[in-house]
């Protein structure tokens, strides 16, 4: 098990992590949280070398993917950088990448009732006005769970707030900050249920953020 205490606040600079081999040749991983070696609740940064492929596999409780660079593919289509994908519980596919890619991958974390398939190109999805100068792009919602991209303009400061059901962030561009630290591109943060912070940025920044999904321990 890796980082499965959801009461723990985590900050991981994935750029400083070493790649670890997966069961598929040419597919590498940086584990962020993992319930078991090759099953259960898992969050990873995954890299496909050009021409690499993973055998057909099932997602008992779903799979969530954000394509960070390159082009990810499976038998259903090709997904370039910026694609957001949700494969519902009990789905399966045979993924590969012709030119190589890097992904955020979350496995087996869906509510069994959350059966929506999502294929979203974030480059062709409009931003909506958020609080203050923020812009928000909603990616998915199911009951308390919300997933979005959030664009922060230089110098923006958000109101202090708490996270019902926790919060998870991946810094996509720029540098994200709060009273606890500064988090450059590639940093992954997980904050527990009812945690609080006062976030801000000093440069243009985009984050992937997910709230309301962690166990209410």
Protein described:
The protein has 217 residues and is mostly beta strands. The chain has strands spanning 10-13, 20-21, 27-34, 42-48, 52-53, 57-59, 63-74, 77-80, 83-87, 91-93, 96-97, 101-107, 118-121, 128-129, 135-142, 145-152, 161-163, 167-173, 175-178, 181-184, 187-191, 195-197, 205-211. The strands form six sheets. Strands 2, 3, 4, 7, 8, 9, 12 and 13 form an eight-stranded antiparallel β-sheet that branches. Strand 19 and strand 20 form a beta hairpin.
Topology:
Elements: E1 10-13, E2 20-21, E3 27-34, E4 42-48, E5 52-53, E6 57-59, E7 63-74, E8 77-80, E9 83-87, E10 91-93, E11 96-97, E12 101-107, E13 118-121, E14 128-129, E15 135-142, E16 145-152, E17 161-163, E18 167-173, E19 175-178, E20 181-184, E21 187-191, E22 195-197, E23 205-211
Task: Describe the structure using short key phrases.
about 220 residues, about 55% strand, mainly beta, single chain, eight-stranded antiparallel sheet, seven-stranded antiparallel sheet
- Uncertain segments are none
SS content category:
mainly beta
Number of helices: 0
What is the terminal separation in angstroms?
18 Å
Please compute the radius of gyration using only Cα atoms: 17 Å
Mean pLDDT: 96
């Amino acid at each position: 098990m890796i980082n499965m205490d959801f009461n723990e606040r985590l900050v991981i600079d994935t750029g400083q992590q070493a790649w670890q081999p997966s069961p598929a040749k040419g597919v590498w991983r940086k584990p962020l949280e993992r319930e078991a070696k090759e099953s259960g609740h898992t969050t990873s940064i995954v890299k496909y070398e050009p021409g690499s492929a993973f055998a057909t596999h099932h997602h008992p409780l779903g799979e969530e993917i954000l394509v960070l660079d390159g082009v990810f593919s499976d038998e259903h289509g090709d997904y370039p950088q910026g694609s957001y994908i949700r494969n519902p519980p009990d789905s399966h596919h045979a993924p590969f990448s012709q030119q190589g890619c890097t992904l955020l991958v979350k496995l087996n974390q869906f509510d069994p009732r959350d059966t929506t398939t999502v294929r979203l190109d974030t480059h062709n999805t409009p931003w909506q006005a958020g609080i203050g100068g923020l812009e928000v792009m909603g990616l998915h919602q199911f009951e308390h769970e919300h997933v979005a991209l959030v664009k922060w303009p230089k110098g923006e400061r958000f109101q202090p707030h708490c996270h019902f059901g926790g919060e998870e962030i991946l810094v996509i561009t720029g540098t994200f900050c709060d009273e606890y630290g500064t988090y450059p591109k590639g940093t992954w943060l997980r904050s527990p249920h009812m945690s609080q912070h006062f976030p801000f940025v000093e440069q243009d920044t985009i984050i992937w953020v997910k709230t309301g999904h962690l166990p209410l321990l």
